[in-house]
Amino acid sequence: MKIVTVVGARPQFIKAAPVSHALRAAGHAEFLAHTGQHYDYGMSQVFFEELGIPEPDVNLEVGSGPHGWQTGQILMRLEEVLLAQEPDWVLVYGDTNSTLAGALAACKLRIPLAHVEAGLRSFNREMPEEHNRVLTDHCSDLLFCPTRTAVENLAHEGITAGVRLVGDTMYDALLQFVEVARQRSTILDQLGLKPKHYLLATIHRPYNTDVPKNLHNILAALAEVGETVIFPVHPRTRNKIAETDGVASLARGSHTVKMIEPVGYLDMLMLEQNARLVLTDSGGMQKEAYFCGVPCITLRPETEWIETVEAGWNVVAGADRGRIVDTVRSFQPGGRPPAVFGDGHAAEKIVGILNSPASGEATKGHGADGA
Hints:
The protein contains 17 helices and 13 strands. The protein is α/β, with parallel strands linked by helices. The chain folds into 2 domains: 2-168 and 342-361, 3-Layer(aba) Sandwich (Rossmann fold); 186-330, Rossmann fold. The strands form 2 sheets. Strands 3-2-1-4-5-6-7 form a 7-stranded parallel β-sheet, with helices on both faces. It has a 6-stranded parallel β-sheet with strand order 10-9-8-11-12-13, sandwiched between helices. Helix 1 crosses helix 17 and helix 7 packs across helix 13 (265-274). The chain starts with a strand and ends in a 16-residue tail after the last helix.
C-alpha cells in the first residue's frame, strides 16, 4: 500500500509522527509531501529531527501568503505530485490550508482521502480553520475522529460512512516522547525555571494577532498577573507585536513576561508539563496541557476541544483582560483529567484500518467504530 502524507505546519508534524512510524513499521510505502506552509527551522525542520520523521520526499516550498493564494499554490503543486505517485490513499491532518489543499487535490483526482482529526467543530465560521476542517470532512472517504464528540458532530452533518473513532495521535506522540523530553531537554535550566513556578503562553490565531485590541488585552493581562510568563513567540505574532502601536512598548516594558524564540517539540513538552498553568489560542496546546494535567486558559471565544472544558481543566476566556487575570489567580482544577482522547494507540488503529480490505468500502455505509 502506498500513502501520500500531506503536512505543512508545526501541529501536523506532531500528529503525523506516530502514524508515519506505524505505516513504515507495517511495511507500507509512505511518500511525505511537505507543503512548506511552515518553513523556518524553529517551526519546521526541528520537528522532523526530534520526532524521528524521515526527511520529506518533496517540499513544495509554498511559504507564507494570503489564504487563497497559499491554498491555490499548494493545490496546483500537490496535484502534480499525486499524478506522479499514484497513491492508494492521501492522508491529511487537522485544519490548515495544507489540509484543505490536500483534500481538494485528492478529491478532484479521485484518490481515496483519509482525514486524521476529523469532526472537530468550533462553530465559528469566522475562523479559516473551521472552513478548512468542514470542507475536508465532506471530501473524505475515511474520517479518523479523536473523540466521541467529533463523531457526533459529523453525524449531525449527515456524515456516518467511513467514520472511525480511533483516539488522538497527539496523545500517542506525547506518550512516546515525554520520557525522551525529560532526558534530553535542558530548557528549564536554560531559562532558570522551577517547576510549577511559571506560566506558559502562546498566541498565533488571527483572532488575536490581527485585532490590535485583543493582542493588547492579552499582553496586558499577562503582565498584570505578576507571575513569570514564558512566551515562545510565533514569527507572525512577533511581527504583529512590533507593528502595533502600544503593544510593542507593552511587551518590552514587562519584567515578568519573557518573550523567547519558538522552541522544538521536546522543549515545549517540558515547558507544558512543568508549567503551573497554560494560556493559549492553540488547539494542540489545549490538548497537551490536558494530557499533562496542567490547567489551561483558552485565549479565544470558543474551543473545538469542548471535552477539556467539560472536564473542568480548560476555561475559555477569549481576549478579556479581566477574565484572563481573574482566571489565572483562581483556577484550580481538582482530581485528574478523565481519559477521553483514546488509549495512546490511535496511529496503530489508523494504519490497521487503512490496511484492511474493508477500508476500500469506507464510503458504503459503515458507521463509527469505537476507540
